[in-house]
Amino acid sequence: MGVINVQGAPSFSIHSSESNLRKSRALRKSISRVYCLQSSSAAVDEPKNITMGDSFIRPHLRQLAAYQPILPFEVLSAQLGRKPEDIVKLDANENPYGPPPEVFEALGNMKFPYVYPDPQSRRLRGALAQDSGLEPEYILVGCGADELIDLIMRCVLDPGEKIIDCPPTFSMYVFDAAVNAAGVIKVPRNPDFSLNVDRIAEVVELEKPKCIFLTSPNNPDGSVISEDDLLKILKMPILVVLDEAYIEFSGIESRMKWVKKYENLIVLRTFSKRAGLAGLRVGYGAFPLSIIEYLWRAKQPYNVSVAGEVAALAALSNGKYLEDVRDALVRERERLFGLLKEVPFLNPYPSHSNFILCEVTSGMDAKKLKEDLAKMGVMVRHYNSKELKGYVRVSAGKPEHTDVLMDCLKQFY
């Protein structure tokens, strides 16, 4: 209801005479009619003064483009008109063997799902300490490594401060920087996907960015950062966040222990690839003690679910299974690489991860190739970025997955 303007209304008093009473009643009726008209007019104009909900949103977030995730099985199944088991999913670097059998047993016997989880994930951090050789006080667990990327930015970056991104690489760094109102300085990789360390040094000196995000092995090409390049960057006045999501497939030892020596190094790891727990979202990181103190203060208290911690602990209990699955995926990666080299319109890049990046050549359109394979029930990854417009990425799966992929590719030549 609008505001009724009663300025200038005649003042009156009620007297006992019948004449004045009639006048008073008439005046009240007149005022009542004016009230209704004024109210109706205000109600019509009211939408012009409504505050829209999105005006409460921070301005930089109103411009944010949503992250484009990989579609899950049930959505793909509906779109393709195929049963989930009839889809060969090689687009998200998931572990097709899944977790060790101990995980299913532990989840089935979970006793206290109605009790909040341990905010410090003490049991899991203890197991990770045994697994990595790094003391638990250096380790923080998150709801996937993605949560830790965002947590690092929230703790480190003021609005307007900058990060260095080295494309092509994992797109979550740029996305989370945008969420946190940070700037991004892009230092593209060399043609062989190695880091342009000299250019990084120039940017650090001129632009004074706060941190740099590096992935090794890099997603999407599978290249690793040389120790020499990493040491050069660690000497720069910048926080180095080293994402080792795929380190198990590289044959290179993790740099988690380095955080005890380098105050400007953070190392991130995940259970998604190694242990087949992508759907349960468990990641972890190694941090210098001078940094981890503040992340403990800022993180959500119950960020790792009871189910996630139970599953991760069970996965770590069967190290042989994890090693066998890793070895199987590495063997299949090498087999896949050899087969892709025989495809006349693909140029695959050697990889130290569980996927292979392929340049699509000979006039073949990469996006259309991805779409045509999807119609056949085989999912591979295509990127819309300028660096990777003409590329597709193929995850290493089981041998039978590779066979189906190759049969489909042969239909194009």
From TrEMBL:
Tell me which GO cellular component terms the UniProt record holds.
chloroplast
Q: In which pathway does it act?
A: Amino-acid biosynthesis; L-histidine biosynthesis; L-histidine from 5-phospho-alpha-D-ribose 1-diphosphate: step 7/9
Q: Which GO terms describe its molecular function?
A: histidinol-phosphate transaminase activity; pyridoxal phosphate binding
The Gene Ontology biological process terms listed for this entry are: L-histidine biosynthetic process
Tagged with keyword S-adenosyl-L-methionine: no
Q: Where in the cell is it found?
A: Plastid, Chloroplast
Q: Name one Pfam family in it.
A: Aminotran_1_2
- The principal location of this protein is plastid
- The kind of enzyme this is, by top-level EC class, is transferase
Q: Which cofactor does it need?
A: pyridoxal 5'-phosphate
CDD domains xref list: AAT_like (cd00609)
InterPro entries per record: Aminotransferase_I/II_large (IPR004839), HisP_aminotrans (IPR005861), PyrdxlP-dep_Trfase (IPR015424), PyrdxlP-dep_Trfase_major (IPR015421), PyrdxlP-dep_Trfase_small (IPR015422)
SUPFAM superfamilies this protein is in? PLP-dependent transferases (SSF53383)
Q: Which family does it belong to?
A: Belongs to the class-II pyridoxal-phosphate-dependent aminotransferase family. Histidinol-phosphate aminotransferase subfamily.
- NCBIfam families in the record: hisC
Protein name listed in UniProt: histidinol-phosphate transaminase
Provenance organism: Capsella rubella
- According to the entry, what is the taxonomic lineage of the organism? Eukaryota, Viridiplantae, Streptophyta, Embryophyta, Tracheophyta
